[in-house]
From TrEMBL:
Pfam families: zf-ChsH2. Residues 26-56 form the ChsH2 rubredoxin-like zinc ribbon domain. It comes from the Bacteria. Residues 1-20 are annotated as: Disordered. This is Zinc ribbon domain-containing protein. InterPro entries: ChsH2_Znr, NA-bd_OB-fold, Thioester_dehydratase-like.
Length: 137
């Protein structure tokens, strides 16, 4: 009379089975530190630059930021490359490269993390979020 079909129905109900974050490898994210005392976000620091606290916890950035400063470097490289300071949404600043024409990166441009570690230089690589609609001429 009783059929053991309940277990199938329970699985179909969709209980979350993944304990780990299934999205992307951890290498494609920038880890930063946040001061547990004052909440300041920082990158590659040992002490909080604001309150000099050493009680920092590591957090993972969403990978979205804004270009604060951008320069084109011609030195020691066959092709000009872009070096930018990116202020991340979490509030810390990281140095990296923005893909695209080196002269096409401007302060205020919104970027998203593309690669956390460049295989050559080990620096983060970003891409522009907004397509450059502005006229180039
Ligand atoms: Zn602090």
């Amino acid at each position: 009379m009783y059929h053991h079909s309940g277990s199938v129905a329970q699985q179909a109900a969709g209980s979350p089975t993944g304990l780990l974050d299934p999205r992307g490898p951890a290498t494609e994210a920038i880890l930063f530190q946040r001061c547990t005392w004052c909440g300041t976000a920082m990158y590659h620091r040992v002490l909080c630059p604001v309150c000099r606290g050493s009680d920092l916890r590591t957090e993972r950035s969403e990978g979205v930021g804004t270009v604060r400063h951008s320069t084109v470097v011609h030195r020691n490289t066959p092709a000009a490359r872009n070096v930018s300071l990116i202020e991340m949404a979490e509030g810390f600043v990281v140095r990296g490269r923005v893909m695209g024409p080196p002269i096409g990166i401007h302060s205020g441009d919104r970027v998203r993390l593309s690669t956390a570690k460049d295989p050559v230089r080990g620096e983060p690589v970003f891409q522009l979020i907004d397509e450059p609609y502005r006229a180039w001429t």
